[in-house]
Write a structure and sequence with these properties.
This protein has 459 residues and is α+β, with helices and mostly antiparallel strands. It folds into three domains: 1-55 and 163-235 and 389-459, FAD/NAD(P)-binding domain (3-Layer(bba) Sandwich), CATH 3.50.50; 56-65 and 91-162, no CATH class; 236-380, D-Amino Acid Oxidase, Chain A, domain 2 (2-Layer Sandwich), CATH 3.30.9. It is built from twelve helices and 20 strands. The strands form three sheets. Strands 1, 2, 6, 7, 8, 9, 19 and 20 form an eight-stranded mixed β-sheet that branches. The protein is globular, with a radius of gyration of 22 Å. It starts with a strand and ends in a 22-residue tail after the last helix. 47% of the residues are buried. Residues 450-459 have low confidence and may be disordered.
Length: 459
Amino acid sequence: MPINKLFDTAIVGGGVAGTSLLFTLARYTDLNNIILFEKYDEVSQLNSNPKSNSQTLHVGDIESNYTYEKAQKVKKASLMVSHYIQNFGEVDRVGFKRDKMLLAVGEREVEELKMRFVEFKTLYPYLELWDEAFLATFEPKLLEGREEPILAMGARGQITTVDYKKLSESFVQQALDTDKNIQMRYNEEVTKIEREEDGTFTITSDTTVFQAKTVVVNAGAYSLLFAQSMGYGKEYAVLPIGGSFFFTKEKYLNSKVYTMQNPKLPFAAIHADPDMTQGWNTRFGPTAFALFKLERYHALHLQDLIAALNIDKDVTQVYMNLFKDSTIRRYILKNVLEEMPLVGKEVFIKDARKVIPSLNVKDITFATGYGGMRPQIIDKNKKELLLGEAKIEEDGLVFNMTPSPGATSSLSIAMQDAEGICEHLGTKFNRLKHENEIQSLKVSSVKEPSLEVKKRAFG
């Protein structure tokens, strides 16, 4: 195959992580030649698709699994996405200002929430405590048929809901609207990345060959496979976790309602979200279960799956440790049952009633075609599950593995990667412009993107 021109940076993966880096490099660096590979026919077909996630901007205010220190980091990262949506004229198209709350049920949780409110109010001054009298008017379904005491910590008028696919499209359009040479390679799957003796990289796709000075792989579970094919990240393995949802047949809530986390089950507490793809009807979930696929609703590539699982005695030990804990074991078995057609709703309704006690089985339906994969990373050396983003960096080569809340952190991760690329190449990152447009709300006149992304075909 003939080798195409040399690019400054090649990005593998067109989800919100890859497109946010494309935008950041195009707008805030002096790099001129950037290429992005996406193996499907448009961006964000997998986990960044609104059907695959809860459409939430995770700020750290109502997620009870976050410590104060973790919330500080998440807040800083998520504000970049919120600022982009507002500064670039994307409110009510990409991001939506709605209400949200963390719901405590029962005396123990209520007391825990009161203490959390005192602590987190200093970080999020807009937080409010909502008692039963307020909730009876604000979200009456939370009180109907309920016997336990409840209390909520809530926020009004914040950007809570994001269509990450449209956000990805907006990022691409903004990049295309610069004067840089931006090439979008849709329907093109990267099959191999090789480092050359001069430090550049050869990227082989299923149609041609390209060269780049730097490469960033934002391809979910496949990021680790690419890394391991080049000799990096052998100490890691993937635990593929799938998630599913249930819909109510009518609109029950106006607000996002999160529930208190069991500390042994991070990211596992049920929440109820007004769903933008279903006329804002309520979506409950997610379930969470091991699903031996790398991409939900796409063909299984068995060889890739076996490589990603990377099963040996260390990985097996992690699995055994998880099953030894009775709380985790019961949770896993319950979520398996929730996927079964005849009993799934009956099992799931018990969790859903923590939010809306009056719900009946007939009121909910399995959200067919919704749900995605969250590749959790296992550290074989430490024999533990890594909760949060994982990254491998090696001399102009970056592999990002970003389970939830990766979409929320996309612009923050992109900034870090862009700064690293500029340092490696000896080029400039325009920090002042980035601070004005992404890290604050001081911009008054930024060009709004087109409604549709212009797809360009390049040979």
